[in-house]
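In this section we walk through a basic example: taking a raw amino acid sequence and producing a predicted 3D structure, encoded as discrete structure tokens. The instruction is simple. Fold the sequence below.
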Amino acid sequence: MPFFVDKPDESLVSYVDRGLVRPGRALDLGCGPGRNSRYLAAEGFVVDAVDLSPVAVAWAEERARDAQVGDRVRFQCGDAFETTALRGPYDLVHDSGCFHHLPPHRRVSYLALLDEVLAPGGHFGISCFAAGPDGSGSELDDAELYRTGRLHGGIAYTPDTLRRIFSDLDEVELRRMHDEPADGPHFGVPFLWTALFRRP
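The resulting token sequence is shown next.
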């Protein structure tokens, strides 16, 4: 499962390498075992990271200590929409695989969270399921998702839908994630969109 691949997203590495995002305060939403959080910390970011899974957060804390970046990452177990411990503003909010697991009505909460914590001029990076024949996730419309009562493994999005949902932000880049080799240093699978937006 991609969740257990212990290496950073190729897109996130690309943003940092190209200077699209620069070290500052970062928030990693749905951090899992902390692969992207550790990368950001090693690159000079001070990171808050949150995930619902206590097992994932325990792994993340252990791996951050082993990588000697534990002093630059603060992991929290909980719901990002309910915790009061997320103190913006953040220069970067990053989400690799959280958004597409949210039911449609939670998009309002998600946008409110971004509005609250993302600094002016800050960046928002996201990787999520791509709609289409070579994509992944469910392409049912919102009404049908509620009728069936489940997300069918996650919601697939089109570029136009992502642009509409995040229309208050300026698009920097939106593309398919590059397919990375299993033995390479970065994680990448082509059934995900990856996008970077900037708050005006």
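Looking at the output, two observations stand out. The mean pLDDT is 92. Helices lie at 10-17, 35-42, 54-66, 106-117, 142-148, 159-165. In the next section we compare this with other chains.
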